[in-house]
Amino acid sequence: MDVILHIGAHRTATTSFQGYLRANAPALAGLGVGFWGPRRTRGGVLAGVIPGPGPLSPARQFDRARGRIALNLAKAGDRRVRQLLVSDENILGSPRGNLRRERLYPDAGPRVAAFARAFEGQLGRIVISVRGQESYWTSVLCFALARGHALPHPATLDRLVTQPRGWREVIEDLAEAAPGVEILVMPHERYAGLPERRLARMLGDAPDLPQAHARHWLNRSPDLAALRNLLAERGEGGLPAGPGPWRPFDHAQRAALNELYQDDMFWLSAGASGLARLAPDPWEEGVEEASPTGPNGGQPAAIDPRARLRRRGQGDDDEEGRMVRTR
Question: Nearest-CA neighbor of 30 among 86, 103, 83?
Fold first, then answer.
């Protein structure tokens, strides 16, 4: 059985992708493809890989998790599952932890190393989606604000811009944590609206995957109006007036963050020092339009993937505010 570990990242359309997988689970099962998503992994089959509070020691929690994983893999094999996709972005860490420590997944290495040990050498591929730092941190801040956090202090925004970790550092940590396991990198800007293409890449360019439910957009970021309403309910303010998305970073900060992502993408395009493989651009290969599903204007919402056609993760097209990252 080929086991693929999809580890996010957060805010890269993982919820929409997992919704597509759940909705098409029967059809995928007929193709020999199994799926473990957050509803099964969290508090379930993967519980204890990262030890939590409780009466059992961390070692005992891990041993039980490893046994549970082996048992469930055996059951999947009995059902003739040939490829198993395990998708849970919390494997990598958490957005709240990133904000608290003002770093991009600072514990990615030890966390993924623990999951690699728990699967006892059965992982064939690790898949990570990356996203432009400006839009990634903005999306994380939007959800933090919606969940009761205060508006970020200007000094916090500065530290998020200057913190030393980009996607290159995260991927280097993954390669060290799971030596010998292929790492496939899928840019959010290319694949977010194309879950069927995303899945095909993860499975090794599998053909004839389901098209149904491929244009649902779940867990989208709240816009300025929604955030203003949430703050008003708490008796707070501080957001600018007007429509559209919230842009917490100023012009120079956005340019610096976009430059960091360009550095990451250049490194990936150049071969990532042999540590990872960048997924090809599906738009350059041609994309067949899937029929949108779901009610417009609600949750889930229909999404046209062509809206992301050439953005490549950049919020601005200018070259001002260039920042060189030291390694």
Answer: 83
The total of structural domains in the chain comes to 1
Residues 6+ apart with CB under 8 A from 1: 73, 76, 77, 81, 82, 83, 84, 122
Helix axes 133-146, 224-233, angle to 10 degrees: 30
* Burial class of 148 by CB neighbour count within 10 A (0 to 12, 13 to 18, 19+): exposed
Assess whether the previous peptide bond of 27 is cis (omega < 30° from 0): no
Task: List the single range of 66-75, 81-90, 139-148, 180-189 with lowest mean pLDDT.
Answer: 139-148
> Which tens digits make up the pLDDT trace of 208-233?
898 878 777 777 788 899 999 988 98
CATH number for the domain harbouring residue 183: 3.40.50
Residue 210 lies in a domain: yes
Torsion of CA 112, 83, 38, 168, to 10 degrees: 40
Examine residue 229 and state whether it is found in any structural domain, yes or no. Answer: no
CA dist 295 and 282 (Å) reads 26
Residue 86, Cα to own-chain centre: how many angstroms? 13
The answer for residues whose C-beta is within 8 angstroms of residue 294's C-beta and 6 or more apart is 213, 215, 216, 217, 300, 301, 302
206 lies in some domain: yes
pTM above 0.70, yes or no: yes
Helices 108-118 + 167-177 axis angle, to 10: 30
The three-state secondary structure class of 127 is strand
CA angle, 109 then 110 then 111, to 5°: 95
How many C-alpha atoms does 294 have within 13 Å on its Cβ side? 22
Any domain includes 27? yes
Q: Is 167 exposed, middle or buried (0-12, 13-18, 19+ CB in 10 A)?
A: buried
Q: Range of 75's domain?
A: 2-218+251-308
Percent of residues in the chain assigned helix, strand, coil, to nearest 5: 45, 10, 45
pLDDT digits (tens, 9 = 90+) for 268-294: 999 999 999 999 998 876 665 544 444
